[in-house]
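Why do we care about 3D structure at all? Because function follows from shape, and shape follows, mostly, from sequence. That is the central idea of this module. The next example makes it concrete: a single protein chain, its amino acid sequence, and then its structure expressed as tokens.
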Amino acid sequence: MKTLFRDPQFEFQMLRMLGGAASGSADVGECLSTADRIVEGDFESWHREWLATAERVEGIAERCLAGGHETSAREAFARASNYYRAAEFYLHGDPNDARIADLFARSVRCFDRALALQALAAERVEIPYEGASLPGIFYAAPGDGAARPTLLLQTGYDGTMEELHAKAVAANRRGWSCLTFEGPGQGRVIRERGLPFRHDWEHVVTPVVDYALSRGDVAAEQVALLGQSLGGYLAPRAVAFEQRIMACVANGGVFDFMGSRVPPVFSRAQFVEMVESSPDAFDEGMRAQMEQNSELRWAAANGMFTFRVETPSAWMKEALRFELSEVVGQIRCPVLVVDTEDEASFPGEAQKLYDALSCPKEFMLFTRAEGAGAHCQVASPALSQQRIFDWLADRFAEAAAG
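And the structure:
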């Protein structure tokens, strides 16, 4: 699918923005007019133009609210929140850039103002975690407060839990509760609390399950976990250890975070040895490539930001630990492995994960012809939710039947 950019990184991020129109977190015209002002491949231009759009739309929200038009204000605050997120997206090359914290705070503020104007039983929560806490939002299923099936929902390498709002609302429409959360390396946890990614994600999800089951409105035998993007590694890793989760969705599946990024002239073991034995040479080569390739420039900058390291080689050493071969055989719950025809972030990884699983499993492919061939079906959220959530509904029904 082509948008207004030739640059693959900008093209995908624009599809991601346009997909928000289905849930009201973007407007197509606002996205296209912003894109028309952006200089191809220029991260500062992307920041500048999305910031201008975000501030303009937030101003609309403020005027609507002052005039007593709460519905219009809610809709504009929701769009502004997403536009501020986009404005911050490419700033991670300098972790000390003050704009990161400012724009993230603005995005969250607009999200919370939109949330306060919605008729949802949604509350921000803090989940106890290793002497600190992780942020979450609990969306209670409509009804009388009885224990309900509950979806634990997490993002991956670069998303925020606010971006998961549409999926949480879709879960509510199906009669489920939903708990969105962020772990180390993600959203507020890296930006405000400074906790970097960790590969042993079971230590993140187990406290989330503990918290969910401490509530009286969560059905203990009907708790599922969905991870998207790098969450397609994090969620399967967690359920290899966490037995209280009755079903897992990996959208898209990731067996090895760096599997598709190992140069074909190396085996994985040779690549690991090269990174560890020659970090300075690796950094020099990586930085030269980053100057020429916006995808690599963003991926490495975001990696150093979210792993809290200072060099590409240090990031790569940590990222190479995100691999499931030693634990995949421990997974027992049903797993849905999702893939897309034009998967660019983790090509081939979903199939590798599916082939390695020995538990009940299903493979779900989204295609270009459906308009859903991009990573995590960003341009087709309605179709994505229909197919994935129907699979989950069947698993919840099986759990309820015993």
